[in-house]
Amino acid sequence: MRVRNVRVYLTGLSRKGPDGLFHSVVFNVPFSYNWAHEKLPAVDVNRQRILDFGIIVKNSPQPGFIPTLNELKMPANFEGFVLKDQILRYCLEIDAENFSSAKQWFYEVAWDGDWDDERAKMEQHLRIREVGSLSS
Questions:
Q1: What is the pLDDT of residue 1?
Q2: Nearest to 83, CA basis, from 53, 119, 58, 116
Q3: With 70 as the cut, is the pLDDT of residue 5 above it?
Q4: What ranges make up the beta strands (E) of 31-120?
Q5: % helix, strand, coil for the chain, step of 5
Q6: How far is the C-alpha of 96 from the C-alpha of 21, rounded, in Å?
């Protein structure tokens, strides 16, 4: 299906607590992602799922994974960063001019705090995987 003016929103967050369970992180409004295909007139959402999901900031007082949200709308107290030894789950929704997804997409990000310039080794330290929900 070819869609136009795709928008991806962060609509939910949960953080793994010391009890091993995931707990909701509350925020008032969805945050928009910077969609990688934003300059293309139309994309096939069944085949092209390219999203600039986030980056690791290593030279910072608090290094960690930062989702690449539209910073103009992100509050200073946003709690969606993954710091050393943390695990967060993100709920994403896709919307477009001629499409609205009934499905929500859930991704888990875990980082052990280590950094390696070699991609294969870094993939052992930063794990991103699709999961079934924010809580299980």
A1: 65
A2: 58
A3: yes
A4: 31-32, 43-44, 54-57, 64-67, 86-96, 99-100, 105-111
A5: 5, 45, 50
A6: 33
pLDDT score of 131? 94
Q: Quick one: which H or E segment has residue 14?
A: strand 7-16
> What distance in Å separates the CA atoms of residue 46 and residue 101, rounded to the nearest whole number?
11
User: Token digits for 107?
Assistant: 């991704």
Q: Is residue 99 part of a domain?
A: yes
| Cβ partners under 8 Å of residue 8, min gap 6 | 32, 33, 35, 51, 92, 93, 94, 95
Residue 55's pLDDT band (cuts 50, 70, 90)? confident
What tokens does 134 get? 């924010």
In a domain, residue 136? The reply is no
* pLDDT, tens digit (0-9, with 9 covering 90-100), for 16-32: 999 999 999 988 888 88
What residues make up the domain containing 43? 2-131
| 19 within some domain | yes
User: What total of structural domains would you count in the chain?
Assistant: 1
Asked if residue 67 belongs to a domain, the reply is yes
